[in-house]
Amino acid sequence: MLPCESVRIYLDHNATTPPLPEVVAVIADVLTGDFGNASSVHAFGQRAKARIDGARGSVASLIGADPNEVVFTAGGTEADNLALRGAAESLDAAGRRHLVTSGIEHEAVLNTVKALERRNWSVTILSVPPSGVLPPEALRAAMRPETSLVSVMHANNEVGTIQPIADLAAIAHENSAWFHTDAVQSAGKVPVDVKALGVDLLSLSAHKFGGPKGVGALWIRRGIRLVPQLTGGRQERNRRGGTENVSGIAGLGVAATIAREKLATSGAKIAALRDRFESGVLASVPGTAVNGERDARVPNTTNISFDGIDAESLLIALDLEGVAISTGSACSSGSLEPSHVLRAMGLPMSRTRNSLRFSLGPATTSAEIDFVLDVLPALVTKLRGLGRRVAVVR
Predict the structure, then answer these.
(1) Distance (Å, rounded) from C-alpha 369 to C-alpha 374?
(2) Dihedral sign, CA of 11, 12, 17, 18?
């Protein structure tokens, strides 16, 4: 067991990942050496443009795409907004104002479709079964002649489940609708190939796989025409105005290259640690259950419910032991509302409030997993005891 004073165990990689040393180095190099504006024609500008072009190629290689189809953004949220708003507005002229998504999407998608709904787009939000995997037949039943766009995430950020994107995209295309997938939690963790998935639009974010915060990308299939959401200069082939974040984009490129090189080996290692941790919790802590499908999911994520406790209380107790985890999406931190993902999966209200997400990373060690397994049972027992005493007093 590791001494508590020295413990700083990070099991919240779905919220963000530590930037890789190689990423930090290239960002510093660009900031100090290649600081030019990529739109400038002189040598400083052309060196900056070369950095961007190199990163575009690296991101394209990560997802099996053509570099010219990659548009850099300020992160996954902007990429989702550009995809949804850009597609909705592009197809509006044809009178197709119906959007379909799932109830387990990230708020970047859910809040965007709700905003479009307030502007008189029709929106269908599909419930998902307790497995956390959307059945293709549910999407088929929701399609209409006026459906313009379907958006279903590749991997869920809270429970880690992977959706049958190729099947879902085929259904959308059968109905002449475009298909977008938010791959923020899958890109860099599992193989992602836009051609195999059959999608039209795909979002990703650098800081989910060792890159910097504040930079992401939207892949736009050749032939898809979106209405730009940031208008200004002619950057990104007129698809996203504004001076490029050259250092961040370069960092994303390096992170994408490293992720692609390590995909074959890192996933299996992380999954083995995740599975050992998960089995250990279920065996040593009574009243626990894994939320969602345990097979079709990204290798680093488990979401576990703990009967008889409040998730926030256990999160704080683990943090005091030096262990960082999450109750769900980092974008919902501070919210007292139960998980919208678990609600959309139809789980009982108690499980939407007593569940914690543990998300591992490439640097997670066996010793760290052993430490958490060692301290967790006593913390749960203590919190359950406190809860019973409070209930008696009331």
Answers:
(1) 9
(2) negative
- Is 48 found in the same domain as 157? yes
Question: Do 316 and 346 share a domain, yes or no?
Answer: yes
Catalytic residue selected from 331, 332, 370, 377: 331
Measured distance CA(167)–CA(90) in Å, rounded: 24
pLDDT band at 7 (very low <50, low <70, confident <90, very high): low
Q: Per-residue DSSP letters for 317-355? A: HHHHTTEE-BSS-GGGTT--SPPHHHHHTT--HHHHHSE
Residues 149 and 60 in one domain: yes
Phi, psi of 188, rounded to the nearest 5 degrees: 90, -10
Domain that residue 44 falls in: 21-258
Name the packing angle between helices 366-393 and 311-320 (round to 10°).
130
Does this model's pTM top 0.90? My answer is yes
331 labelled catalytic: yes
**242 and 355 together in one domain:** no
Q: Which domain CATH number covers 96?
A: 3.40.640.10
DSSP string of 123-165, one letter each residue? EEEE---TTS---HHHHHHH--TTEEEEE--SB-TTT-BBP-H
Give the end of a domain, one of 200, 230, 258. 258
Instruction: Please say which residue of 258, 291, 317 terminates a domain.
Output: 258
Q: Are residues 376 and 333 in the same domain?
A: yes
Q: What is the pLDDT of residues 139-175, one digit of tens each?
A: 999 999 999 999 999 999 999 999 999 999 999 999 9
Token duo for residue 159: 């429970």
Q: What is the pLDDT, as a whole number, of residue 76?
A: 98
244 close to 35: Cβ distance less than 8 angstroms: no
Token output for 91: 């197809």
CA distance 84 to 227: 10
